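Re-run with default settings, no changes from the original entry. Doing this only to confirm the output is reproducible before filing.
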Amino acid sequence: MVNKKGARAGTQASMRAQASWAFFDFSNSGFPTVVSTFVFAAYFTQAIAADPETGTALWGTATGIAGLLIALTSPVTGAIADHTGRQKPWLAGFTLLCIVATATLWFAAPDVTSIPLALAAVVVATMAFEVSLVFYNAMLPTLTTPERLGRLSGLSWGLGYLGGLCCLVIALVVFVQADPAPFNLDKENAEHVRATMLLTAGWVAVFAWPLFVFTPDTPPTGLPMGAAVKHGLSALVQTIKQAKRHANSFRFLIARMIYIDGVNTMFAFGGIYAAGTFGMTLEDIILFGIALNITAGTGAAVFGFVDDRFGSKQTLAISLVALIATSTGVLLAQTPTQFWIAALTMSIFFGPVQAASRTMMARLAPPGMRGEMFGLYAVSGKVTSFAGPFAVGWITVLAGSQRIGMVSILVFLCIGLYVLRGVREP
Protein backbone atom coordinates (compact mmCIF):
# COMPACT_ATOMS: atom_id res chain seq x y z
CA MET A 1 0.00 0.00 0.00
CA VAL A 2 0.95 3.66 -0.27
CA ASN A 3 1.98 5.13 3.07
CA LYS A 4 2.65 8.66 4.26
CA LYS A 5 6.24 8.52 3.10
CA GLY A 6 5.34 7.72 -0.49
CA ALA A 7 5.14 4.78 -2.83
CA ARG A 8 6.87 1.50 -2.07
CA ALA A 9 8.15 -0.83 -4.75
CA GLY A 10 6.00 -3.82 -5.59
CA THR A 11 2.86 -2.58 -3.82
CA GLN A 12 -0.54 -1.65 -5.19
CA ALA A 13 -1.18 2.09 -5.26
CA SER A 14 -4.71 3.45 -5.45
CA MET A 15 -6.51 3.35 -8.78
CA ARG A 16 -6.50 7.16 -8.86
CA ALA A 17 -2.72 7.20 -8.35
CA GLN A 18 -2.20 4.65 -11.13
CA ALA A 19 -4.59 6.42 -13.51
CA SER A 20 -2.89 9.77 -12.85
CA TRP A 21 0.50 8.25 -13.58
CA ALA A 22 -0.78 6.67 -16.80
CA PHE A 23 -2.49 9.94 -17.80
CA PHE A 24 0.90 11.68 -17.88
CA ASP A 25 1.50 9.75 -21.11
CA PHE A 26 -1.68 11.38 -22.45
CA SER A 27 -0.19 14.80 -21.77
CA ASN A 28 3.36 14.45 -23.06
CA SER A 29 2.61 12.38 -26.18
CA GLY A 30 1.56 15.53 -28.00
CA PHE A 31 5.26 16.33 -28.38
CA PRO A 32 6.46 13.26 -30.31
CA THR A 33 3.23 13.15 -32.32
CA VAL A 34 2.93 16.78 -33.39
CA VAL A 35 6.54 17.98 -33.23
CA SER A 36 8.80 15.00 -33.90
CA THR A 37 6.72 13.06 -36.38
CA PHE A 38 3.75 14.52 -38.21
CA VAL A 39 3.68 18.33 -38.20
CA PHE A 40 6.91 20.15 -37.43
CA ALA A 41 9.18 17.52 -38.98
CA ALA A 42 7.26 17.73 -42.26
CA TYR A 43 6.99 21.53 -42.02
CA PHE A 44 10.76 21.78 -41.50
CA THR A 45 11.67 19.68 -44.54
CA GLN A 46 9.03 21.22 -46.81
CA ALA A 47 9.00 24.89 -45.79
CA ILE A 48 12.13 25.80 -43.81
CA ALA A 49 14.90 23.71 -45.41
CA ALA A 50 16.08 24.48 -48.94
CA ASP A 51 14.77 21.14 -50.25
CA PRO A 52 13.34 17.88 -48.80
CA GLU A 53 16.62 15.93 -49.14
CA THR A 54 18.65 18.58 -47.31
CA GLY A 55 15.88 18.91 -44.72
CA THR A 56 15.90 15.16 -44.14
CA ALA A 57 19.66 15.18 -43.58
CA LEU A 58 19.52 18.19 -41.22
CA TRP A 59 16.63 16.68 -39.27
CA GLY A 60 18.52 13.41 -38.92
CA THR A 61 21.59 15.29 -37.69
CA ALA A 62 19.58 17.20 -35.07
CA THR A 63 17.91 14.00 -33.89
CA GLY A 64 21.30 12.35 -33.55
CA ILE A 65 22.72 15.27 -31.53
CA ALA A 66 19.72 15.13 -29.20
CA GLY A 67 20.35 11.41 -28.77
CA LEU A 68 23.96 12.00 -27.73
CA LEU A 69 22.86 14.61 -25.15
CA ILE A 70 20.30 12.16 -23.78
CA ALA A 71 22.96 9.45 -23.53
CA LEU A 72 25.20 11.78 -21.51
CA THR A 73 22.45 13.16 -19.24
CA SER A 74 19.97 10.42 -18.41
CA PRO A 75 22.09 7.81 -16.55
CA VAL A 76 23.69 10.48 -14.37
CA THR A 77 20.42 12.15 -13.38
CA GLY A 78 18.77 8.74 -12.88
CA ALA A 79 21.52 7.60 -10.52
CA ILE A 80 21.34 10.85 -8.56
CA ALA A 81 17.54 10.53 -8.29
CA ASP A 82 17.98 7.07 -6.76
CA HIS A 83 20.04 8.61 -3.98
CA THR A 84 17.73 11.57 -3.34
CA GLY A 85 14.81 9.11 -3.39
CA ARG A 86 12.42 11.43 -5.26
CA GLN A 87 11.44 11.35 -8.91
CA LYS A 88 8.83 14.12 -9.22
CA PRO A 89 11.11 17.19 -8.95
CA TRP A 90 13.29 15.88 -11.77
CA LEU A 91 10.25 14.95 -13.82
CA ALA A 92 8.76 18.43 -13.33
CA GLY A 93 11.99 20.22 -14.25
CA PHE A 94 12.62 18.41 -17.52
CA THR A 95 8.94 18.55 -18.48
CA LEU A 96 9.00 22.34 -18.04
CA LEU A 97 12.14 22.59 -20.18
CA CYS A 98 10.42 20.58 -22.93
CA ILE A 99 7.38 22.89 -22.78
CA VAL A 100 9.47 26.07 -23.12
CA ALA A 101 11.59 24.71 -25.99
CA THR A 102 8.49 23.49 -27.84
CA ALA A 103 6.82 26.90 -27.53
CA THR A 104 9.99 28.47 -28.96
CA LEU A 105 9.30 26.70 -32.27
CA TRP A 106 6.57 29.30 -32.89
CA PHE A 107 9.37 31.60 -34.03
CA ALA A 108 10.58 29.19 -36.75
CA ALA A 109 9.36 31.03 -39.87
CA PRO A 110 9.27 29.31 -43.30
CA ASP A 111 12.71 30.48 -44.36
CA VAL A 112 16.21 28.97 -44.34
CA THR A 113 17.29 31.65 -41.86
CA SER A 114 15.13 29.87 -39.25
CA ILE A 115 17.11 26.62 -39.53
CA PRO A 116 19.47 27.26 -36.55
CA LEU A 117 16.62 28.30 -34.22
CA ALA A 118 14.40 25.42 -35.29
CA LEU A 119 17.06 22.73 -34.90
CA ALA A 120 18.36 24.11 -31.58
CA ALA A 121 14.86 24.17 -30.07
CA VAL A 122 14.12 20.66 -31.38
CA VAL A 123 17.35 19.32 -29.86
CA VAL A 124 16.63 20.85 -26.42
CA ALA A 125 12.96 19.82 -26.41
CA THR A 126 13.76 16.26 -27.51
CA MET A 127 16.48 15.89 -24.88
CA ALA A 128 14.21 17.21 -22.11
CA PHE A 129 11.31 15.01 -23.21
CA GLU A 130 13.38 11.82 -23.22
CA VAL A 131 15.21 12.51 -19.94
CA SER A 132 11.91 13.23 -18.19
CA LEU A 133 10.86 9.68 -19.06
CA VAL A 134 13.72 8.30 -16.93
CA PHE A 135 11.92 9.47 -13.79
CA TYR A 136 8.44 8.73 -15.11
CA ASN A 137 9.35 5.14 -15.96
CA ALA A 138 11.15 4.62 -12.65
CA MET A 139 7.85 5.25 -10.83
CA LEU A 140 6.13 2.29 -12.55
CA PRO A 141 7.31 -0.55 -10.23
CA THR A 142 6.21 1.44 -7.15
CA LEU A 143 2.58 1.66 -8.28
CA THR A 144 1.49 -1.94 -8.86
CA THR A 145 2.45 -5.56 -8.27
CA PRO A 146 4.84 -7.39 -10.64
CA GLU A 147 2.08 -9.50 -12.18
CA ARG A 148 0.17 -6.36 -13.26
CA LEU A 149 3.05 -4.28 -14.61
CA GLY A 150 2.23 -5.11 -18.23
CA ARG A 151 -1.35 -3.89 -17.98
CA LEU A 152 -0.42 -0.58 -16.35
CA SER A 153 2.42 0.02 -18.79
CA GLY A 154 0.21 -0.88 -21.75
CA LEU A 155 -2.60 1.35 -20.44
CA SER A 156 -0.28 4.35 -20.24
CA TRP A 157 1.04 3.77 -23.76
CA GLY A 158 -2.55 3.46 -25.00
CA LEU A 159 -3.46 6.72 -23.28
CA GLY A 160 -0.34 8.25 -24.79
CA TYR A 161 -1.48 7.42 -28.29
CA LEU A 162 -4.93 8.76 -27.44
CA GLY A 163 -3.41 12.02 -26.19
CA GLY A 164 -1.28 12.35 -29.29
CA LEU A 165 -4.37 11.65 -31.41
CA CYS A 166 -6.48 14.31 -29.68
CA CYS A 167 -3.72 16.92 -29.93
CA LEU A 168 -3.22 16.08 -33.61
CA VAL A 169 -6.95 16.34 -34.36
CA ILE A 170 -7.14 19.78 -32.76
CA ALA A 171 -4.04 20.86 -34.68
CA LEU A 172 -5.65 19.73 -37.93
CA VAL A 173 -9.19 21.04 -37.46
CA VAL A 174 -8.58 24.24 -35.51
CA PHE A 175 -5.35 25.43 -37.13
CA VAL A 176 -4.17 23.66 -40.29
CA GLN A 177 -7.51 23.19 -42.11
CA ALA A 178 -9.32 26.26 -40.80
CA ASP A 179 -10.07 28.87 -43.44
CA PRO A 180 -9.73 31.60 -42.47
CA ALA A 181 -7.14 30.73 -39.86
CA PRO A 182 -8.16 31.48 -36.25
CA PHE A 183 -6.81 34.43 -34.27
CA ASN A 184 -5.94 36.27 -37.52
CA LEU A 185 -2.97 33.97 -38.10
CA ASP A 186 -1.06 34.69 -41.31
CA LYS A 187 -1.11 31.60 -43.53
CA GLU A 188 1.41 33.14 -45.93
CA ASN A 189 3.91 33.10 -43.08
CA ALA A 190 2.78 29.61 -41.92
CA GLU A 191 1.57 30.99 -38.61
CA HIS A 192 -1.35 28.52 -38.61
CA VAL A 193 1.18 25.65 -38.69
CA ARG A 194 3.59 27.25 -36.22
CA ALA A 195 0.70 27.83 -33.79
CA THR A 196 0.42 24.05 -33.38
CA MET A 197 3.71 24.25 -31.48
CA LEU A 198 2.06 26.55 -28.91
CA LEU A 199 -0.88 24.14 -28.80
CA THR A 200 1.48 21.24 -28.06
CA ALA A 201 3.34 23.12 -25.33
CA GLY A 202 0.04 24.08 -23.70
CA TRP A 203 -1.29 20.54 -24.06
CA VAL A 204 1.60 19.12 -22.03
CA ALA A 205 1.31 21.83 -19.39
CA VAL A 206 -2.45 21.46 -18.92
CA PHE A 207 -2.76 17.67 -18.76
CA ALA A 208 0.40 16.72 -16.81
CA TRP A 209 -0.86 17.98 -13.44
CA PRO A 210 -2.79 14.88 -12.17
CA LEU A 211 0.45 12.93 -11.72
CA PHE A 212 1.97 15.67 -9.56
CA VAL A 213 -1.18 15.92 -7.44
CA PHE A 214 -2.43 12.34 -7.04
CA THR A 215 0.47 9.95 -7.69
CA PRO A 216 2.76 9.40 -4.67
CA ASP A 217 6.47 9.96 -5.11
CA THR A 218 9.09 7.56 -3.82
CA PRO A 219 10.22 8.49 -0.28
CA PRO A 220 13.13 10.94 0.09
CA THR A 221 16.35 9.47 1.46
CA GLY A 222 17.29 12.62 3.39
CA LEU A 223 20.65 12.92 1.61
CA PRO A 224 21.64 16.49 0.70
CA MET A 225 21.91 17.11 -3.04
CA GLY A 226 25.72 17.31 -2.93
CA ALA A 227 26.01 13.91 -1.26
CA ALA A 228 23.37 12.44 -3.58
CA VAL A 229 25.34 13.62 -6.61
CA LYS A 230 28.55 12.10 -5.24
CA HIS A 231 26.94 8.76 -4.33
CA GLY A 232 24.91 8.64 -7.53
CA LEU A 233 27.94 9.12 -9.77
CA SER A 234 29.94 6.61 -7.75
CA ALA A 235 27.14 4.03 -7.95
CA LEU A 236 26.80 4.53 -11.70
CA VAL A 237 30.53 3.99 -12.22
CA GLN A 238 30.46 0.83 -10.07
CA THR A 239 27.44 -0.53 -11.97
CA ILE A 240 29.22 -0.11 -15.28
CA LYS A 241 32.46 -1.61 -13.91
CA GLN A 242 30.54 -4.58 -12.52
CA ALA A 243 28.49 -5.16 -15.66
CA LYS A 244 28.96 -8.94 -15.32
CA ARG A 245 26.84 -8.90 -12.16
CA HIS A 246 24.00 -7.46 -14.23
CA ALA A 247 24.83 -9.30 -17.46
CA ASN A 248 21.22 -10.22 -18.22
CA SER A 249 20.01 -6.65 -17.78
CA PHE A 250 22.85 -5.29 -19.90
CA ARG A 251 22.13 -7.81 -22.66
CA PHE A 252 18.54 -6.62 -22.72
CA LEU A 253 19.70 -2.99 -22.81
CA ILE A 254 21.95 -3.78 -25.78
CA ALA A 255 19.09 -5.51 -27.60
CA ARG A 256 16.79 -2.57 -26.92
CA MET A 257 19.52 -0.12 -27.95
CA ILE A 258 19.49 -1.68 -31.40
CA TYR A 259 15.82 -2.41 -32.10
CA ILE A 260 14.45 0.79 -30.56
CA ASP A 261 16.79 2.77 -32.82
CA GLY A 262 14.89 1.29 -35.74
CA VAL A 263 11.51 1.98 -34.15
CA ASN A 264 12.36 5.58 -33.24
CA THR A 265 13.81 6.26 -36.67
CA MET A 266 10.62 4.98 -38.27
CA PHE A 267 8.67 7.39 -36.04
CA ALA A 268 10.98 10.32 -36.73
CA PHE A 269 10.90 9.90 -40.49
CA GLY A 270 7.35 8.61 -40.96
CA GLY A 271 5.84 11.96 -41.88
CA ILE A 272 8.88 12.95 -43.92
CA TYR A 273 8.73 9.68 -45.89
CA ALA A 274 5.00 10.03 -46.54
CA ALA A 275 5.47 13.57 -47.81
CA GLY A 276 8.54 12.95 -49.94
CA THR A 277 7.74 9.55 -51.46
CA PHE A 278 3.97 9.74 -51.86
CA GLY A 279 3.50 13.49 -52.15
CA MET A 280 1.23 13.75 -49.12
CA THR A 281 0.27 17.26 -48.08
CA LEU A 282 0.56 18.41 -44.48
CA GLU A 283 -3.17 17.78 -44.02
CA ASP A 284 -2.79 14.26 -45.45
CA ILE A 285 0.09 13.59 -43.07
CA ILE A 286 -1.93 14.73 -40.06
CA LEU A 287 -4.84 12.47 -41.07
CA PHE A 288 -2.31 9.67 -41.49
CA GLY A 289 -0.98 10.39 -38.00
CA ILE A 290 -4.49 10.28 -36.54
CA ALA A 291 -5.10 6.85 -38.05
CA LEU A 292 -1.73 5.56 -36.82
CA ASN A 293 -2.42 6.72 -33.28
CA ILE A 294 -5.73 4.85 -33.20
CA THR A 295 -4.21 1.52 -34.29
CA ALA A 296 -1.04 1.94 -32.22
CA GLY A 297 -2.95 2.86 -29.06
CA THR A 298 -5.23 -0.14 -29.47
CA GLY A 299 -2.24 -2.43 -29.93
CA ALA A 300 -0.50 -1.07 -26.81
CA ALA A 301 -3.56 -1.53 -24.58
CA VAL A 302 -4.41 -5.04 -25.83
CA PHE A 303 -0.85 -6.36 -25.71
CA GLY A 304 -0.54 -5.23 -22.07
CA PHE A 305 -2.63 -8.28 -21.16
CA VAL A 306 -0.49 -10.45 -23.44
CA ASP A 307 2.58 -9.15 -21.58
CA ASP A 308 1.21 -10.16 -18.17
CA ARG A 309 0.04 -13.54 -19.49
CA PHE A 310 3.01 -14.66 -21.61
CA GLY A 311 5.84 -12.37 -20.50
CA SER A 312 7.58 -9.27 -21.80
CA LYS A 313 10.19 -11.13 -23.84
CA GLN A 314 7.59 -13.14 -25.74
CA THR A 315 5.56 -10.00 -26.38
CA LEU A 316 8.65 -8.22 -27.67
CA ALA A 317 9.63 -11.09 -29.96
CA ILE A 318 6.16 -11.34 -31.52
CA SER A 319 5.95 -7.58 -32.01
CA LEU A 320 9.43 -7.25 -33.54
CA VAL A 321 8.82 -10.06 -36.03
CA ALA A 322 5.54 -8.41 -37.01
CA LEU A 323 7.25 -5.00 -37.32
CA ILE A 324 9.92 -6.41 -39.64
CA ALA A 325 7.30 -7.99 -41.88
CA THR A 326 4.98 -4.99 -42.00
CA SER A 327 7.83 -2.46 -42.37
CA THR A 328 8.95 -4.37 -45.43
CA GLY A 329 5.42 -3.96 -46.77
CA VAL A 330 5.57 -0.22 -46.14
CA LEU A 331 8.84 0.14 -48.07
CA LEU A 332 7.58 -1.99 -50.96
CA ALA A 333 4.32 -0.04 -51.29
CA GLN A 334 3.98 1.67 -54.66
CA THR A 335 0.71 3.55 -54.22
CA PRO A 336 -0.69 5.70 -51.40
CA THR A 337 -3.41 3.07 -50.76
CA GLN A 338 -0.84 0.30 -50.37
CA PHE A 339 1.21 2.55 -48.11
CA TRP A 340 -1.78 3.33 -45.88
CA ILE A 341 -2.73 -0.34 -45.47
CA ALA A 342 0.82 -1.48 -44.70
CA ALA A 343 1.53 1.43 -42.34
CA LEU A 344 -1.67 1.00 -40.32
CA THR A 345 -0.95 -2.70 -39.91
CA MET A 346 2.63 -1.92 -38.87
CA SER A 347 1.54 0.63 -36.27
CA ILE A 348 -0.37 -2.01 -34.29
CA PHE A 349 2.98 -3.30 -33.05
CA PHE A 350 4.67 0.01 -32.20
CA GLY A 351 2.97 0.31 -28.81
CA PRO A 352 3.62 -3.29 -27.67
CA VAL A 353 7.35 -2.95 -28.41
CA GLN A 354 7.59 0.22 -26.33
CA ALA A 355 5.32 -0.85 -23.47
CA ALA A 356 6.79 -4.36 -23.15
CA SER A 357 10.34 -2.92 -23.17
CA ARG A 358 9.49 -0.70 -20.22
CA THR A 359 7.85 -3.58 -18.38
CA MET A 360 10.86 -5.82 -19.01
CA MET A 361 13.19 -3.21 -17.53
CA ALA A 362 10.93 -2.74 -14.51
CA ARG A 363 11.09 -6.50 -13.87
CA LEU A 364 14.86 -6.71 -14.38
CA ALA A 365 15.90 -3.63 -12.37
CA PRO A 366 17.03 -4.39 -8.78
CA PRO A 367 15.20 -2.44 -6.04
CA GLY A 368 17.08 0.72 -5.14
CA MET A 369 18.60 0.97 -8.62
CA ARG A 370 15.51 1.73 -10.68
CA GLY A 371 16.38 5.33 -11.46
CA GLU A 372 19.90 4.30 -12.41
CA MET A 373 18.72 1.36 -14.52
CA PHE A 374 16.05 3.43 -16.25
CA GLY A 375 18.74 6.03 -16.88
CA LEU A 376 20.76 3.33 -18.63
CA TYR A 377 17.50 2.25 -20.28
CA ALA A 378 17.18 5.74 -21.73
CA VAL A 379 20.78 5.51 -22.88
CA SER A 380 20.03 2.20 -24.56
CA GLY A 381 17.45 4.03 -26.62
CA LYS A 382 19.70 6.98 -27.42
CA VAL A 383 23.42 6.11 -27.23
CA THR A 384 23.29 4.94 -30.85
CA SER A 385 20.21 6.96 -31.76
CA PHE A 386 22.33 9.00 -34.14
CA ALA A 387 22.95 5.84 -36.19
CA GLY A 388 19.42 5.34 -37.49
CA PRO A 389 18.71 8.99 -38.41
CA PHE A 390 22.21 9.47 -39.84
CA ALA A 391 21.88 6.28 -41.90
CA VAL A 392 18.46 7.23 -43.25
CA GLY A 393 19.39 10.87 -43.83
CA TRP A 394 22.67 10.37 -45.63
CA ILE A 395 21.74 7.21 -47.54
CA THR A 396 18.74 9.21 -48.79
CA VAL A 397 21.08 11.97 -49.98
CA LEU A 398 23.61 9.61 -51.57
CA ALA A 399 21.01 7.40 -53.25
CA GLY A 400 18.65 10.24 -54.07
CA SER A 401 15.77 8.14 -52.71
CA GLN A 402 13.96 8.22 -49.37
CA ARG A 403 12.77 4.65 -49.96
CA ILE A 404 16.33 3.31 -50.14
CA GLY A 405 17.32 5.35 -47.10
CA MET A 406 14.47 3.89 -45.02
CA VAL A 407 15.54 0.29 -45.77
CA SER A 408 18.34 0.67 -43.20
CA ILE A 409 15.67 0.60 -40.46
CA LEU A 410 15.04 -3.11 -41.08
CA VAL A 411 18.66 -3.91 -40.23
CA PHE A 412 18.29 -2.44 -36.73
CA LEU A 413 15.08 -4.39 -36.06
CA CYS A 414 16.58 -7.72 -37.17
CA ILE A 415 19.81 -7.37 -35.16
CA GLY A 416 17.91 -6.26 -32.04
CA LEU A 417 15.61 -9.27 -32.27
CA TYR A 418 18.61 -11.60 -32.56
CA VAL A 419 20.31 -10.17 -29.44
CA LEU A 420 17.03 -10.36 -27.49
CA ARG A 421 17.01 -14.15 -27.91
CA GLY A 422 19.68 -14.52 -25.20
CA VAL A 423 17.88 -12.47 -22.53
CA ARG A 424 16.42 -14.40 -19.58
CA GLU A 425 13.11 -13.06 -18.30
CA PRO A 426 12.63 -13.26 -14.51
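The chain has a mean pLDDT of 81. Residues 15-215+224-420 form a domain with the Growth Hormone; Chain: A; fold (CATH 1.20.1250.20).
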